[in-house]
């Protein structure tokens, strides 16, 4: 299947164009050992063919060991787990949003814009003197993903085409 991966970035916090707040939508720290880390990534990624959706328990254990510094944040809507944001801190004061998404039952409920606003604000606050926040998305992800990223102020800086 043909895929286009688009990499997007913000280089100053003021580039963020926030979505209107959604009452009841929150972003809270999530312990990396919580079973929600795996469960949410699987549920978010399954509809889009993310590799994580088919990992075995052993593969997840190995994956978590390879990413000991990854930070996880839970998106909740009215107290229910609704999604996940995962962050990697990189040299050069960069923060990568490695995972961002909503579980299927919260997609198409007009939560994505504010969820992304919360995730981007958190990215800018994760380390002192952050100079760049970036992420990537696939043409096989939800069709609103790329437009949402761009509406929030992220700008494309690279694309890659290939087969998945």
UniProtKB/TrEMBL annotation:
<dbReference type="InterPro" id="IPR000182">
    <property type="entry name" value="GNAT_dom"/>
</dbReference>
<dbReference type="Pfam" id="PF00583">
    <property type="entry name" value="Acetyltransf_1"/>
</dbReference>
<feature type="domain" description="N-acetyltransferase">
    <location>
        <begin position="25"/>
        <end position="164"/>
    </location>
</feature>
<dbReference type="InterPro" id="IPR016181">
    <property type="entry name" value="Acyl_CoA_acyltransferase"/>
</dbReference>
<protein>
    <submittedName>
        <fullName>GNAT family N-acetyltransferase</fullName>
    </submittedName>
</protein>
């Amino acid at each position: 299947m043909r895929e286009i991966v688009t990499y997007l970035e913000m280089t100053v916090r003021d580039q963020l164009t926030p979505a209107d707040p959604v009452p009841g939508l929150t972003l809270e720290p999530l312990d990396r050992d919580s079973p929600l880390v795996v469960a949410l990534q699987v549920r978010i990624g399954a509809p889009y063919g993310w590799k994580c959706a088919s990992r075995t328990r052993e593969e997840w254990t190995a994956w978590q060991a390879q990413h000991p510094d990854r930070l996880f944040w839970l998106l909740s809507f009215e107290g229910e787990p609704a999604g996940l944001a995962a962050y990697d801190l990189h040299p050069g004061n960069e923060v990568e949003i490695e995972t961002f998404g909503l579980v299927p039952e919260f997609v198409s409920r007009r939560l994505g814009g504010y969820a992304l606003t919360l995730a981007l604000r958190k990215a800018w606050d994760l380390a002192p003197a952050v100079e760049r926040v970036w992420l990537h998305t696939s043409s096989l992800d939800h069709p609103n993903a790329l437009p949402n990223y761009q509406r929030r102020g992220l700008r494309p800086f690279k694309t890659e085409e290939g087969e998945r």
